[in-house]
Amino acid sequence: KAGVTQTPRYLIKTRGQQVTLSCSPISGHRSVSWYQQTPGQGLQFLFEYFSETQRNKGNFPGRFSGRQFSNSRSEMNVSTLELGDSALYLCASSLELAGVGSDTQYFGPGTRLTVL
Amino acid sequence: LAKTTQPISMDSYEGQEVNITCSHNNIATNDYITWYQQFPSQGPRFIIQGYKTKVTNEVASLFIPADRKSSTLSLPRVSLSDTAVYYCLVGDYAAGNMLTFGGGTRLMVKP
């Protein structure tokens, strides 16, 4: 069974631009979560989508948004990029809502975003 | 709010057993304890998960005492390739099922 895939793997943008990242979960998984990882802040939860609905949201500004499609694929968008948005963006999928009982999250390889 | 505390870093040598302990004093009744391994510039990889007592798989063991306020990940006979960051995670039901990663433990395995 194929794992979680993320595209693109690397991205370079300039301040003020916007970016869209894509995540394809493991087949059959209905939940997709997004995380931002930086050396200073570690792994921080952005949001989680389940059945095309945002179920949970972390403490990030409204410039960060996402959506999930009927096939469970998800995209996240960051508008008006700032230098501090440079990070590894990780997507994780799980069968059901992450954190419920023994359901496990499986992570993708991440998208490395650099904002110049 | 379930929160985890782990040592920031640990050193070991090849062939030794490594035990990493995680504290989670506010763990909720329904929370499971999950450990992940992460190499630089890669996504975290699931290692093991448990609810109570002991769980063992092909790569690690997880020991959970009766009060579940801590857990210990045991890696038998580590090799250089086990050098990574290890995260302990518990379900964060207080925040609406949002999982919270702590700072992780950076394990350095030396030859």
Q: Which features characterize this protein?
A:
heterodimer; A: 116 residues; mainly beta; 7-stranded mixed sheet; 11 strands; B: mainly beta; 5-stranded mixed sheet; 4-stranded antiparallel sheet; 9 strands; globular
| H/E element order of chain B | EEEEEEEEE
* Record field, number of beta strands of chain B: 9
What about the largest sheet of chain A?
7 strands, mixed
Overall outline of chain B: globular
Evaluate the radius of gyration of chain B. Answer: 13 Å
Work out the helix count of chain B: 0
What's the total helix number of chain A? Answer: 0
Please mark out the parts of chain B with pLDDT under 50 across 5 or more consecutive residues, or reply none.
Answer: none
| SSE pattern of chain A, N- to C-terminal | EEEEEEEEEEE
**Helicity of chain B, as a percent range:** under 10%
Which structural category fits the helices and strands of chain A?
mainly beta
* CA-atom Rg of chain A in angstroms: 13 Å
What is the typical, i.e. mean, pLDDT of chain B? Answer: 89
Estimated structural class of chain B: mainly beta
Distance between the termini of chain A: 37 Å
Large-scale geometry of chain A = globular
- Work out the strand percent of chain B: over 45%
How large a portion of the residues of chain A is in β-strands, by DSSP E? over 45%
Fold topology:
The complex is a heterodimer of chains A (116) and B (111).
Chain A: E1 5-7, E2 10-13, E3 19-24, E4 31-38, E5 42-50, E6 53-57, E7 64-68, E8 74-78, E9 87-94, E10 106-107, E11 111-115
Parallel strand pairs in A: 2-11
Antiparallel strand pairs in A: 1-3, 3-8, 4-5, 4-9, 5-6, 7-8, 9-10, 9-11
Chain B: E1 9-13, E2 18-23, E3 33-38, E4 45-50, E5 53-56, E6 61-64, E7 70-75, E8 84-90, E9 105-110
Structure description:
The complex is a heterodimer of chains A (116) and B (111). Chain A is mainly β. Chain A is built from no helices and eleven strands. Chain A has strands spanning 5-7, 10-13, 19-24, 31-38, 42-50, 53-57, 64-68, 74-78, 87-94, 106-107, 111-115. In chain A, strands 2, 4, 5, 6, 9, 10 and 11 form a seven-stranded mixed β-sheet that branches. A four-stranded antiparallel β-sheet of chain A has the order 1-3-8-7, with no helix packed on it. Chain A starts with a strand and ends with a strand. Chain B has strands at 9-13, 18-23, 33-38, 45-50, 53-56, 61-64, 70-75, 84-90, 105-110. A five-stranded mixed β-sheet of chain B has the order 1-9-8-3-4, with no helix packed on it. Chain B has a four-stranded antiparallel β-sheet with strand order 2-7-6-5, with no helix packed on it. The N and C termini of chain B lie far apart (40 Å). Classes of the chains: A mainly beta (116), B mainly beta (111).
